[in-house]
Amino acid sequence: MYKTLHEFGMDEIIIEKSKFIGYAKPIKTEEEAIEFVNEIKKKHKDATHNVWAYTLGKSMNIQRYSDDGEPQGTAGIPTLEVIKKEDLRDVVVVVTRYFGGVKLGAGGLVRAYTKGAKVGIDAGKVVSKVLYKDVRIKIDYNQLGKVQNEIMNMNYFIKDTIYEDNVVLVIYSRENEVSDLISKITDITSATADISILDEFYLSESNGNLII
Q: Are residues 53 and 136 in the same domain?
C-alpha cells in the first residue's frame, strides 16, 4: 500500500497580494512529470515563477525540484517537503506565483509555497493505493441471492455480474482478504463454486472506502 493523488487538482490562495496557484497530479513516469511542468509553464508563461517538485517510485527513489528563480531553498524544497510530509508517491506539484508587489522574505516564501503546494494536493484528493485482485466466482443461479448477500455483508466489492449458463460474479478483493473470501464462498456453496483469480492491480481507497 502507498499514498498518492486520486486525480488532477488545482486551487489558489492570495498571500500579501501575491497569487499562488497550486497544481498537483498523479504520474507514472518522469516524462509525465516533466510534460506536466512544461504544460503549466506554458499556460502561465506570464507568471513571476512556476516552482515545481515531484517524487517517483514506491521508495521515492526519484525526487526533483526547482526554485524557478526564487531564492535558493525558499520554494522548490518546501514544495517537495509537502509531498514528502503527506507521504505521497508518484506525484508532481507546480506552484505558480504572480507577484503582488509585496516582498515576503525567505521565511514568508517558504510558508507561501508550502501553502500553495498543500491546496493543490488537497484538491487532487490524497488516497491510499491498495493491492486488489480480480476474483471470479461461478455459481448456479439458485445460489446467487445467498452468495451476493454474503459478499456484501463481508464488504467485498462486486464489480460485475455476468449471466451465462451459470452466473459469474466479478469481485474486487484486497489481496490480503482473498483467502477469507474463497473460504467463505467455498463454505456456503458446499464447495460447488468455481473460483478463479485473475489480475492484480492497485485501486484507490479513501478512509477505507474503495473509489472506482
A: no
Question: Range of 143's domain?
Answer: 129-211
State the total domains in the chain.
Answer: 2
- For residue 80, give the amino acid letter: L
3-state helix/strand/coil string of 51-69: EEEEEECCCCCEEEEECCC
Show the cell assigned to 65. 525540484
How does DSSP classify residue 85?
A: H
Query: Which residues are CB-contacts of 31 (< 8 A; sequence separation ≥ 6)?
Result: none
The predicted pLDDT at position 72 comes to 94
User: What own/partner pairs with CB < 8 Å and gap ≥ 24 does 179-186 have?
Assistant: 180/154, 181/135, 181/151, 181/154, 181/156, 182/135, 184/150, 184/154, 185/137, 185/147, 185/150, 185/151
Q: Confirm if 6 and 125 have CB atoms less than 8 A apart.
A: yes
Q: Under the phi-then-psi rule, with left for phi > 0, alpha for psi from -120 to 50, and beta for the rest, what region is 113? A: alpha
Q: Which helix (H) or strand (E) holds 77?
A: helix 76-85
Predicted confidence band of residue 132 (pLDDT cuts 50, 70, 90): very high
Give every CB contact of residue 2 below 8 A, 6+ residues apart in sequence: 58, 89, 128, 129
Q: What is the pLDDT of residues 17-71, one digit of tens each?
A: 999 999 999 999 999 999 999 999 999 999 999 999 999 998 899 999 999 999 9
Q: 156 by DSSP, 3-state: which?
A: coil
